[in-house]
Design brief:
By secondary structure, the chain is α/β, with parallel strands linked by helices. The protein has 17 helices and five strands.
């Protein structure tokens, strides 16, 4: 994976090339961008360029994500296979397969791929100790040593503090590339030591061209998908084929919404909301968070539909007897902020291991009230 394979982000690509060619490589860099914006493939391509520009023979190892001077750290947790002390090194084989299939995939997809059930992915202090150990060794080829930390916002506080000194004062030719979708969740002491590079959404033309080139998509369909993807190449790939998790999320969401509407003046429906909350709470926390992010986007799509921004509406619910256009008038300027705040609060508390059933029940009761708020 080199710069020639990168989709869009031309100005970032040029900046990184020029900095490498001019020997102005920052020892700690933070790639920040939304899912599907290409932060991980860009980091790998940048590492490939630094390690192979003077040694083309090393390109094969880089392409296999197996170069001895290119290291990866990413969120993990115990699974049926790894019973304790889970670390990135134990999942390297799965990681290489996962990235080669589609380096734009999300954290949720990664954790599903390695079979984490009711746990969240994290990067703990034991992983930080391994980073210190690896970075203290001499490089294999006497060139750069590169540590790519994917989803660096999953570094816990102890791990972050463990890495502070090395990030601030690394050994010679040591480069850290931290990747995040939520830079505000990183410790400020970490971000202040990094050169920040912000990744915007990928342009529609770049997404369409990539779909045509890589997936043999017909031009008009590629352009439609690129428009719906809103700068997220991972979303564009998902739109090519039916997504089982999104079908499940749609069913959960519509069941929830219908119960919330029936609850007005009908106390017996509270039982349905409690049962719904209990069923969602039985899923893993990563599933719960991903579902709530799906709800945020569903409400956003309804709001856009309500205010006639049809060009930005791409949701096409498959559930029978549910019409997004009929639901849309109930999402408006008088309630959207409260809905967003309630959903984001729920995500925040689930991330911090609060009781999911209580959180989702509270959210359901709030939603019942908000959906019956009349537009100003």
């Amino acid at each position: 994976m080199d710069f020639s394979t990168i989709i869009g982000q031309h100005h970032i690509k040029n900046h990184l090339k020029q900095s490498a060619d001019g020997n102005r490589v920052a020892h700690a860099q933070l790639f920040s961008g939304a899912n599907g914006s290409g932060t991980l493939p860009m980091a790998i391509a940048y590492a490939h360029y630094l390690l192979c520009k003077n040694n083309p023979n090393a390109g094969i190892m880089c392409d296999k994500l197996a170069h001895p001077d290119m290291h990866f750290v990413f969120p993990t947790n115990t699974t049926n296979k790894i019973k304790k002390h889970a670390s990135s090194d134990q999942f390297l084989e799965e990681w290489r397969e996962f990235v080669k299939d589609n380096p734009f995939k999300s954290l949720y997809e990664w954790l599903q791929y390695i079979g984490i059930d009711n746990k969240q992915g994290n990067i703990n202090v034991d992983e930080a100790k391994e980073i210190l150990k690896k970075m203290s060794l001499k490089s294999f080829e006497g060139n750069h040593k590169i540590m790519i930390i994917w989803m660096a916002d999953k570094l816990n506080t102890e791990a972050s503090n463990k890495l502070l000194k090395l990030i601030e004062e690394p050994t010679e030719k040591t480069i850290f590339i931290l990747i995040t979708e939520k830079k505000e969740q990183l410790l400020t002491t970490i971000t202040s030591r990094c050169q920040l590079i912000e990744f915007p959404p990928i342009g529609e033309k770049d997404i369409a061209d990539a779909l045509i080139d890589r997936y043999n998509v017909e031009s008009s369909k590629a352009q439609l998908i690129a428009h719906k993807a809103q700068g997220d190449f991972n979303k564009a790939v998902q739109l090519l084929t039916p997504n089982e998790s999104e079908a499940q999320f749609e069913q959960w969401f519509i069941t929830w919404i219908r119960a919330a509407f029936r609850a007005k003046g009908n106390k017996t429906v509270i039982k349905d909301l409690l049962e719904w909350s209990e069923s969602i709470a039985a899923s893993g926390r990563e599933v719960q968070k991903n579902f709530l992010h799906y709800c945020l986007e569903f409400f956003r799509q309804a709001l856009l539909s309500n205010y006639q921004a049809k060009d930005l509406v791409y949701f096409e619910p498959q559930t029978s007897n549910f019409d997004l256009n009929k639901f849309a008038p109930f999402v408006h300027g008088a309630n959207i902020l409260q809905i967003y705040e309630a959903l984001n609060d729920a995500i925040y508390h689930i991330e911090r291991n609060a009781n999911a059933k209580i959180i989702l029940t509270d959210l359901s009761i709030k939603l019942t009230r908000y959906l019956h708020t009349k537009a100003a």
